[in-house]
Design goal:
By secondary structure, the chain is of the alpha+beta class. Among the domains are: about 210 residues, no CATH class; about 150 residues, no CATH class. It is built from 21 helices and twelve strands. The radius of gyration is 27 Å and the shape is elongated.
C-alpha cells in the first residue's frame, strides 16, 4: 500500500547534505541582496548535485525562476544567474546591467531586500521506465521527486517544488520536460503516447530525482528545509486544545470564501492558492454549500456551551447567515431546491442551529422547497445509495419530532435496505451518512442493529490505513491516510475524511466501542487526524501561496494538490467536531 520507491541503480543515495545546501543558499542570498549575480562561474554546488532550481518571489508573486541540469558544479550559479536576470528585468526594466554606481541600482538593491528566495538542489538522476506517461510518472512520488528528460546532451527538468507551486503532476512535468526538447509534439500529453518509440527514434531518456529544498516564507525570515513543500506534522501536536484550534481555523477558513457581493451566492468554488483565484464556475454548487452550512452549524452547536458568549454568537450568526442565503430563490445562485442531497443537508443545518435562528421567510422556503424533495428521494430506487444515505440521515434526525415529515418506519426500512444491499467493501463509500442515520434511528436504545456491520467497516478502514512501513522515509507525511484504491501507486487524499468522520463518532458510543477498546481506537483515530492536519495549510506552505487570509487553515485535496474546496473543508470540520465530542464523552 502507498507509494514505494523503485530500487535505484548504483550506490547513490540521492541525498544532498543539508549543510552544503545551506551554504549554497547563503551564496545565492548574498548575490541577490547585493543586486548582482557574479558574471564569472561560481562552483557552490553540493556534492552529488546534478541540477538546481531558483525561484524569486516578491509579495508571493514569482518574479524570476530558472532550472538547470548541470553536473559540473555550476547548477546553483547558473540557475541563480538566469532567475536574477528575469527578476531584474521585472523590477527595473530600464536599469543597464553592470550599472553599479547609478542611483537606479541603489533602488534595485533596496527592492531585493523584499525578495523571498526558494532553492531546490537535485541529487543523482535515477532512470525511469514505462511505456506510457502515467506508468513512467508512477515511479515519482508527487511533490518529492522531480522529473527530467534527455535527448543527446540536452536536459530539461521540472523540479518538485515547482510542480507543487503550480499544482501539476509528475506526468504533466514529464510532458513539459519532453516538449522543451523539440520532440514531435503529436501525442505528447496523451496518456497513450508510446515512450518506447520515442526512446528508439529520438534517444529519449527519462529520470526522477530527489531534492534538498529550502525556501523563505517571507523575505525577512530565515529559510526552512521543506518536505513536499511543507513540514511533516507530528502526533505530539494533537491534543484537545489543538483540535479546538484546528476546528476554529476551519470554521473561519470556510467563511473567508464567502461571496463578497450583495447577491445571495453563498460560498465561492475551489480556491487555487498558488494562483490566488477560483476555479470556474466561481460559485460553489448547491450540495457543497449545503454541506458547508451543516458543518458550520454542527460546530456552532458543539461550541454553544463551551465558547464565550460573544464567540458562540459569532458561530451561530455565521452559520445562520450562510443558510439564509442558500434558502433564497435566485436565478443565478445555488439552488438547494434542485438537489435532494443539498435539500437534506440544508435541513440538517437548520436542525443543528434551531429553526428560531432563521427568519420566517427562510424557514418557509426550506419547508416548501426541501422537505418534499428529500422525502421523494428517500425511496427513489434510481437514486444512488450515497444520495439516499444522506437523505436517510436527514429524515432520521427530523422524524423524531412531533411534526415529522415522514414516518420513522419508512426511514428505518431504507436504512436497513442500504445496509443489506451494500457490500462490506462498498460500505465506506456511504459514510459517514449511513452510520449517522443508523444511530439517529436507534437513539438511546441499548443495541445498534447494524453494530456488527459497523464494527466490520471500522476494521476494514484500519486495514487500509497507511503505516510507516508502507511508505518508508519518503512518505512519512502520508502516514495515517486511508487508501482504498488498488492502483500502482495508491496515495491518500482528503477522501480519508469520509469514513473517518463516522469512526470518530463510533469512538464516543459505548455500544460500538467497548471501554477496553478505547485506547487502541483512539490511537488509530489520532493517526488519521494527524494526516488530516498534514493536509492543512500552515506557515511553511506560504512560501508558494499568495493570500494568507484565504489559504491558512484550509484543508487541501492532497499533499500535492493544493486546491481548497468547500466540501473538503466541511468534511474536515465535521470530523474534528465528532472527534472532540467523542473524546469528551470518554473522559
Amino acid at each position: 500500500m502507498g507509494w514505494a520507491a523503485p530500487a535505484a541503480s548504483g550506490a547513490a543515495t540521492g541525498r544532498i547534505a543539508s549543510t552544503e545546501a545551506m551554504e549554497a543558499y547563503q551564496a545565492i542570498q548574498g548575490w541577490i541582496r547585493a543586486g548582482a549575480v557574479p558574471s564569472e562561474p561560481q562552483r557552490v554546488d553540493p556534492q552529488q548535485a546534478t541540477g538546481a532550481s531558483v525561484t524569486l518571489r516578491l509579495s508571493g508573486a514569482v518574479v524570476g525562476r530558472a532550472s538547470v541540469v548541470d553536473e559540473e558544479g555550476l547548477a546553483v550559479w547558473r540557475a541563480s544567474r538566469d532567475a536574477w536576470a528575469e527578476a531584474r528585468r521585472r523590477l527595473r526594466p530600464d536599469t543597464r546591467e553592470g550599472a553599479d554606481d547609478e542611483p537606479e541600482h541603489a533602488e534595485l538593491v533596496e527592492r531585493t531586500a523584499l525578495i523571498a528566495i526558494d532553492l531546490q538542489i537535485a541529487g543523482p538522476l535515477t532512470p525511469i521506465g514505462g511505456a506510457g506517461l502515467e506508468e513512467a510518472a508512477g515511479e515519482a512520488s508527487p511533490g518529492l521527486h522531480g522529473v527530467a528528460a534527455r535527448v543527446g546532451r540536452r536536459f530539461e527538468a521540472v523540479f518538485p517544488g515547482t510542480m507543487l507551486a503550480t499544482n501539476i503532476t509528475p506526468a504533466q512535468g514529464l510532458v513539459i520536460a519532453m516538449s522543451a526538447l523539440d520532440l514531435p509534439r503529436a501525442g505528447i500529453g496523451d496518456p497513450r503516447v508510446n515512450l518506447d518509440a520515442l526512446r528508439r527514434e529520438h534517444g529519449l531518456s527519462l529520470y526522477r530525482f530527489e531534492v534538498a529544498h529550502l525556501a523563505q516564507v517571507s523575505s525577512d525570515r530565515p529559510p526552512r528545509f521543506l518536505y513536499r513543500g511543507g513540514r511533516v506534522r507530528q502526533m505530539s501536536e494533537i491534543n484537545e486544545r489543538s483540535l479546538r484550534e484546528f476546528g476554529d481555523g476551519l470554521f473561519e477558513h470556510i467563511l473567508a470564501h464567502r461571496w463578497v457581493g450583495e447577491e445571495p451566492f453563498g460560498l465561492m468554488s475551489a480556491y487555487r492558492p498558488w494562483a490566488g483565484d477560483y476555479e470556474q464556475p466561481m460559485i460553489a454548487e448547491a450540495r457543497s454549500q449545503a454541506l458547508a452550512a451543516y458543518a458550520l452549524a454542527r460546530w456552532s452547536a458543539l461550541m454553544r456551551t463551551e465558547a464565550t458568549e460573544a464567540l458562540a454568537l459569532h458561530y451561530a450568526e455565521a452559520a445562520a447567515s450562510l443558510l439564509e442565503k442558500l434558502a433564497q430563490e435566485t436565478e443565478e445562485g445555488p439552488d438547494i431546491g434542485a438537489s435532494a442531497t443539498a435539500a437534506a443537508l440544508s435541513l440538517l443545518a437548520r436542525a443543528a442551529l434551531g429553526a428560531d435562528s432563521l427568519s420566517a421567510e427562510a424557514n418557509e422556503l426550506l419547508d416548501r422547497r426541501c422537505l418534499s424533495l428529500a422525502v421523494e428521494m428517500l425511496e427513489n430506487q434510481s437514486a444512488s445509495a450515497g444520495e439516499r444515505a444522506i437523505v436517510a440521515f436527514a429524515l432520521a434526525r427530523l422524524s423524531s419530532g412531533d411534526e415529522a415529515p415522514v414516518e420513522r418506519d419508512r426511514v428505518r426500512a431504507v436504512v436497513r435496505e442500504l445496509f443489506r444491499t451494500t457490500s462490506a467493501g462498498d460500505l465506506p463509500s456511504l459514510m459517514p451518512w449511513l452510520g449517522w442515520a443508523e444511530l439517529a434511528m436507534v437513539e438511546d436504545q441499548p443495541d445498534v442493529p447494524a453494530g456488527v456491520a459497523l464494527r466490520s467497516f471500522r476494521s476494514t478502514v484500519w486495514r487500509h490505513q497507511v503505516e510507516p512501513r508502507d511508505v518508508g522515509e519518503e512518505g512519512l507525511d502520508l502516514v495515517g491516510g486511508i487508501v482504498f484504491t488498488r492502483g500502482r501507486a495508491p496515495l491518500p487524499s482528503w477522501h480519508t475524511l469520509r469514513p473517518l468522520a463516522f469512526i470518530a463518532t463510533m469512538l464516543g458510543d459505548d455500544r460500538l466501542t467497548d471501554d477496553e477498546e478505547v485506547g487502541a481506537e483512539l490511537l488509530r483515530l489520532m493517526g488519521s487526524i494527524r494526516f488530516v492536519l498534514q493536509l492543512s495549510v500552515d506557515e511553511t506552505h506560504m512560501h508558494m501561496f499568495r493570500d494568507r487570509g484565504r489559504s491558512l487553515g484550509g484543508v487541501r485535496l492532497a499533499p500535492w494538490d493544493h486546491r481548497l474546496t468547500p466540501e473538503a473543508n466541511a468534511m474536515a470540520l465535521l470530523t474534528v467536531a465528532e472527534t472532540l465530542e467523542s473524546v469528551r464523552r470518554r473522559r
